[in-house]
Amino acid sequence: MLDPFIPHVFAYRDFYQSHPLAFLMGLFSFVLALGSVFLFGLSLFFHRMQRRQAQARLALETRLSPLIVACLFQHQAPERVWESVPRGQEKAFVEMLYRYQQRLKGSVNQKLQTLAEPYLVLLARQLGHSQPEMRAQALKILATFQEQSYLSALARALLDPSPLVVTIAFQALTQSHIVGYHREILAALPRVENLSLNYLASLLVRKGTILSPGLRLLFADPAAPIHLRGVAAKTLLLLNDLAAVDVALAIIQSEAAADICVPALKLLEKLSPRDLSSQILPLWHSRDFAVRAYALRALARLGRQTQLPLLLTGLNDSSPWVVRQAAQALNELRQKSLWPAELEADFALTEQLNAILGQA
Amino acid sequence: MLDFLLWVINGAVLAYFLLLNTTYFVTCLLAWNGLSHYRQRLKLIQTQELLGVMENPSISIIAPAYNEAASCVESVHALLNLEYPDYEILIVNDGSQDATLARLQAAFELRPVAVVPMAQLVTQPVKQVFKSKIYANLWVIDKANGGKADALNTGLNFCHYPLFCAIDSDTLLEREALLRIVRPFLEDYRTVAAGGIIRIVNDCEVEKGKVKNIRLPQNYWARIQVLEYLRAFLIARVGWDQLNALLIISGAFGLFKRSLAVEVGGYDTRTVGEDMELVVRMHRHCREKRLPYRIRFVPDPAAWTECPESLKILGRQRERWQRGLTEVMLKHKQLCLNPQQGILGWIVFPYFLFLETLGVLIEFLGYFTFPLSWLRGSLSWEYLMAFGALAFGYGTLISFFSLCLEQWVFFRYQKVGDIFRLAWIALAENIGYRQLSAWWRFKGTLKALLGFKGQWGKMERRGFQPKAGPGV
Description:
The complex is a heterodimer of chains A (360) and B (472).
Chain A: H1 12-18, H2 20-73, H3 78-84, H4 90-103, H5 108-116, H6 120-125, H7 132-146, H8 151-157, H9 163-173, H10 182-188, H11 197-204, H12 212-220, H13 226-238, H14 244-254, H15 258-271, H16 277-280, H17 289-303, H18 308-314, H19 320-335, H20 341-344, H21 347-357
Helix pairs in contact in A: 1-2, 2-3, 2-5, 4-5, 7-9, 8-9, 11-13, 12-13, 13-15, 14-15, 15-17, 17-19, 18-19, 19-21
Chain B: H1 2-44, H2 47-51, E1 59-65, H3 72-80, E2 87-94, H4 100-108, E3 110-113, E4 126-132, E5 138-143, H5 148-158, E6 163-167, E7 172-173, H6 177-181, H7 183-187, E8 191-200, E9 205-207, E10 210-213, H8 220-242, E11 253-257, H9 258-263, H10 274-288, E12 294-305, H11 311-331, H12 343-375, H13 381-410, H14 416-428, H15 433-449
Parallel strand pairs in B: 1-2, 1-6, 2-5, 8-12
Antiparallel strand pairs in B: 3-4, 4-5, 6-11, 7-12, 8-11, 9-10
Helix pairs in contact in B: 1-8, 1-12, 1-13, 8-13, 11-12, 11-15, 12-15, 13-14
């Protein structure tokens, strides 16, 4: 079929018959060369595209920034800004407002919302996009500028198949000023359980004590995933939830896993209003160094100087982490002048503590 | 008989070549897919938002230093300017014979302190621990020479935070690098390690520890390495990351869960590929104990490093890397085709063992057997040329792929001339450099198989200053 085009240039048929493998390899090399040329062209195209985008962004910012600033700080009417948004650049304009929003605080954000309002419908359409990143981006911007109008969309997004979208919705709904949706948030926890414990707790704590009863139930539930129980414990601790002390106490008395005993001990250490030394003491003999370290911390905090002999024993523990906790606790007592006179005169001990704590 | 032998070797070379390049091609597709999603995700990443997280995990940065007097002070300044809420810096001076320690002492007013280590990894003796009078989060540990892995273990013994970031002391981290690399740890609690991208700093303009103006190096060999790094990070790492099968996190920039690193025994001091070995051991440990885990590659937090500009040092470096790879493969050979190890045992490990390690021997043999077969008349000239063209085509395609991804997602090289220069390198490196590289890797594999022991790589550094010249 190709004969009319290349018969005189290259006797490919003869070559194929005499060297079939070399022919195929040569042909494939040709395809690879074409691929390379294509990719080089694509690199240039992307380069040009990136430059153009950067230039367009710069041009848009140069054009609109003075107007936006005037609108935000000098009572300029928003219509004046809207008139200047070039056709086809509406989304870029909203993204620009979003960047402003990240840098500004206070009442000007309200004005930014007003500026963004007419264009948000474009982003709302993007919520049905097949790519999760596009859905997430739309959700994030909508939640930033007009979350009250899109609360139901945010709640629906908690059931999105993409973890990214769920995370964005979760971040938005856990903001302190959003009322309600507690059940949805708690129900969505297993869908965001991969988030780190501290991060998840820092999101949940923004909702305040309204989540406490649900979190207490989660913390106490031995059937729940241990990571989520840890999240619940951490959040309750950040919320200073005194009712969680009893839950934590029950946990250290009935469960042995370090992953749940450690959060419970941290909670007891910080929140318990009474001395629970007798209940915590058995954990000091745990084989897990983390449990021993946190038990020691809790004992030092709750039992104060009555635990001095135990703290001194802790300095000889096999785990350096327990030793460090003991040294920190002893140092704290020393600073609060809670050391007996004989310890105060013990220079070797002071030097040992300094060495453990890295003090000069 | 000889012809038959040559025929067998040539067949093996062809099979190796096809398998290797098919794997490269598949990795390219995986990387394309991964980066196309990541490109969108980049818009969602707000580092300021991450800073607002109440409890970002604290990070200990461990930077081993051996004869780094030229660049250590500037590197530490850069580390001190990182944007991250809570971190400490541990510079481990591994018995440097130059003025590394003296320069650090003078620049940061170090005073000796007595500190008890927090882990018991066996290392060479620590002579003295110093703490800066000016910066409360800067520590310098002076120890007897024991190699990079030993220095990292010393750092691990003294770090106090749940995550540690292993870097080379001459590495320049971008200001937001820690905030970006910590993201996988926030997004997924199963994350035990994450690596960032390494870029070449030669001839870039550096001011106060910050890369201000990104330029392609003027040196030919350094330019080749720019392309190599793009291929290694934007294609190989991103591609393997898509399968949760990342086997290498560069020693120049990686973030690890401290407790797990200590639990698996820290860095192996008997290999020069200690960074890869630790990652393999983490994979193995987590899989054997059935612990949920993730080892991730994050393509946007960048660390900048100086690369060798002389062929001699480059050759030594590549030989050392290959020796490290071979040592790790031999040490963990039981992972190969081990059904308990899942994708690691069935795909990733066989790929690295047979294609990247032992395959190098076959590849190198091919450079002799093909011409020999042709000289003896058992291989046609046409076949020889076609094979050469195929090798050239594949090599070039992969390089262009990485160039394309760089422009599409990161756009760090913003001059159009840079694309042409890198394109030229993509073509030119196929003749001369690839063959040299094969020779270095052949030597590296052979030395590892014969049991040669490695040490710190000697690298002549000129610090982070652009070379004076017409283009600068």
